[in-house]
Amino acid sequence: MHNVILSVLGTSQDAGLPQPNCYCNNCVKAIKDPTFRRTAASLAIVFPNERTWHLIDATPDLKDQMIQLQHTFELQGKTMSSIFLSHAHMGHYPGLIFLGKEAMNVSQMPVYAGEKMKTLLENHAPWQQLTDLENIVVHEVRPDQLTAISQEVTIKTIDVPHRNEFSETFGFWIIGPSKKVLYIPDIDRWEDWHVDLYETCQEADICLLDATFFSTKELAHIGRNFKDIPHPPITETMDRLQALVTSGQTDVYFTHFNHSNPVIDPASQERHILEARGFKIAEEGMSFEL
């Protein structure tokens, strides 16, 4: 059995930390302290022995994320073997532009995406150029489809509800030789999903879940209406999964943090509450053996 690693490349909501033109406490700290910064949510599946890797979501921060990954796993000069895209929001696919002739100029990179996302990439500029020049080849995947990226690792797409203005939205099961990981960086409401969150998370060894906002109070503080930005708050997700986490059956990590989220700060009361309840924070550079 070969070594397989799931590496966390990014943990922020689409615009990153610091967010452009924001001077909230978190953003000011990130401007002053580079170690406090976060890049857009993304994962890599790494096969160190084969010196290959696969990417989940191509973020606007792809360049920096690639450099960090390649240095960590001694993959200098090794591009990803494939890319899986969750949906067409700005934190999850613009990094594809680095694959084109102005930058890496890759050839026939396999990109796995839903039907609507495939149409977008093949028919709308600037993405159409990538497909016309065969920098990328888009493969349509459907909900619940299994795609093997090796003899030992399979990725299963999951349809989730999430403001699908331009494409469908997927979460992913990452099924390794010994562990199953559930990755859902974006979803509207758990109650809008066609499956039960608790029962689904029971099947996982590790969950990486949408943590855009800590609570509805956070949204009110930044002057946004909770109904206009549908994401399940961390407080609700913890309530739904507390028994599962307390039992030790599944490790639940939070990711995809908005720049305003107080749990980003390790010294915050909200962070202490989260950790006291047994939940965890995904950090960039964190790795899990699959």
Architecture overview:
Helices cover 23% and strands 22% of the residues. It has 8 helices and 14 strands. The protein has helices at residues 25-32, 62-72, 115-123, 127-132, 197-202, 216-221, 234-247, 269-276; strands spanning 5-10, 42-47, 52-56, 83-84, 109-113, 136-140, 146-148, 154-159, 170-175, 180-184, 206-210, 251-255, 280-281, 287-289. The strands form 2 sheets. The protein has a 7-stranded mixed sheet with strand order 6-5-4-3-2-1-14. Strands 7-8-9-10-11-12-13 form a 7-stranded mixed sheet, with helices on one face. It is globular. The protein starts with a strand and ends with a strand. The model has no long low-confidence stretch (mean pLDDT 94).
Key words describing this protein structure:
290 residues; alpha/beta; seven-stranded mixed beta sheet; 23% helix
Shape descriptor: globular
Q: CA-to-CA gap between the ends?
A: 11 Å
Q: Uncertain runs with pLDDT below 50, 5 residues or more?
A: none
The value of Rg in angstroms is 18 Å
Q: Quick one: biggest sheet?
A: 7 strands, mixed
- Percent in strands: 15-25%
By DSSP, the count of extended strands is 14
The order of strands across the largest sheet is 6-5-4-3-2-1-14
Order of helices and strands: EHEEHEEHHEEEEEHEHHEHEE
Helix content: 10-25%
Counting DSSP H or I runs of 4 or more residues, the number of helices is: 8
Can you summarize this structure?
The protein contains eight helices and 14 strands. By secondary structure, it is of the alpha/beta class.
